[in-house]
Amino acid sequence: MAKQQKIFTVHLGCSKNQVDAECLITEFLHLGFKTVDSAAKADYILINTCGFIEPAKEEAINTILAHIAGRKKNQKIIVTGCLSKRYGDELKAELPEVDYWAGLYKPGELVRQMGLTPAESCAVPMRQNLGGFKHHAYVKIAEGCERQCAYCAIPKIRGRQVSRPISEIVEEAQMLEKSGVKEITLIAQDTTFYGREKKSVAGGNLKDLLRALLDNTNIPWIRMLYWYPAFIDDELLEMIANEPRLVKYIDMPIQHASDNVLKPMLRKYAAKELRDILLKIREKIPGVTLRTTVLVGFPGETHEDFEQLMDLLGEIRFEHLGGFVFSPEEGTPVMAMKKLEPVAESDARMRLDAVNEMQEEICAENAENMIGKEVTVILDEVAEESEFHFYGRTEANSMDVDDIVRVVEGDGDVGTFRKAIVVDAGPHELDVKLI
Known about the structure:
The chain is an alpha/beta fold. The chain has three domains: 108 residues, 3-Layer(aba) Sandwich (Rossmann fold); 234 residues, tm_1862 like domain (pyruvate-formate lyase- activating enzyme, Alpha-Beta Horseshoe); 64 residues, CATH 2.40.50.140. Helix content is 34%, strand content 22%. The protein is built from twelve helices and 18 strands. The strands form four sheets. A six-stranded parallel sheet has the order 6-9-10-11-12-13. The chain has a five-stranded parallel sheet with strand order 2-1-3-4-5, sandwiched between helices. Helix 6 packs parallel to helix 7 and helix 11 runs parallel beside helix 12. The chain starts with 5 loop residues before the first strand and ends with a strand. The model has no long low-confidence stretch (mean pLDDT 93).
C-alpha cells in the first residue's frame, strides 16, 4: 500500500487568501492526503503567501527561507498566493529550493503541476477550515477588483472583479450550514460592487445575494467585510437594519478624509460624500458597529489634511479602526505621481500614533458604556488554562480582526449563542456572565 502523503499549511495574509488556501487543501484531501499540525510531520509544506505591502512581502520571504533551512530530507516545499503571483519568475530564480510555485488558486492547477489528477473542482467547496473554528467560515463572493486606488497592487495581482453566481454562493452556504457553520462572513475586495461588473454572471447585486442567503439558509449570523463608499443605498441599509440575521456591522475602509488626499489616491469620492454616507449608516442602522482602516503618510498629505482625517474620526467614532503607514509599491499609479511631495516616515509614524491614541480613548469609552448591558455572545472556544470559561464574540466583533469577549461565569457549548451580561470591560475586551 502506498504511503499516505501528509501536508502542512502555512497561511499568510487576508481572509480572501485564506479561502484560496482552504480550497487548495481540500483538493489534496480529496486525493488522499492528510493534514498535519507541524512541518516536521509533513511530506509537503504549503506556504500560502501575501504580497500586498512591504511588511507582508518580507514576512512571506522570511517564512519561505525558514522552511527551506529547516526542511527534512525528501520534504517538498510549495509556494502559492499573491507573492508568488506577483514575483513568480524572480522568486523561482532566487529560490530554486522551492519545488512548486503556483501563484493564485485555480482549481486543479497545482495538483496537475505535481503530476496528479484533480479529484474534483473547488467551485462549490466543502472546504477544509483553516480558521480553527468549525462554526465560522469565510465565503468569497468575488475575485479581483475594479478599483484602481493609487496605492494598491491588488488589481495588478488579482485582476478585475469577477463575481460568483448567487446560486453558487447559496449552494456553498447551504453546505457550510450542514457542516455546522453558524456564522458566515462574506468577503471580496469590494463587496458593495458585487455583481456590478460588465458581463457579470452573478445574477444580481449585493441586496439580491443577501435576500437569496436569507431565503435559502438558516445561518444565524451573516456578516460582511470590505465595503467601499459606493452603491450604498437606503434599501441596502434598511435590509440590514430590519433582518435580524444580518449582523449590524459595517466594515468600510475609508483610507482618508481630506479631498487633497482622496483625489490623488483615486478613491473617487469626496470628503463630504464620505461623511454623509457614514452618518446615514449610523441613522439607518441603530446600534450599528462601524469598522474602518485609514492610511497616513500618503505622498502630498499635509498636516492640515491629517487634521481633517482626525476631525472625521472624532465625529464618527468608529468602534474598530486599523491604521497603516503608506508603503510605496512598484507598479501602482502613485509611483508615477512625481509632483506629490513624499511624507517623512517619522511624520507618518507620528500621525499613526495620534490616530491610535484617539482610537484607544474611543474604545475605552465605548467599553465603559457597555457595562451592565445584555449582549448575545457566540462561544468560539474554551479558555484553556485560564480564569475564564470561554472566549467569544458579540455581533460587534468580527472573527480574527476585532476584540474578544471573555466569559467569566457560565457554561455552554462552543459554537452556540448565549445571552450574557457585561460585568467589566476594557478597550479591547468585554467580560461577561452568561445568563
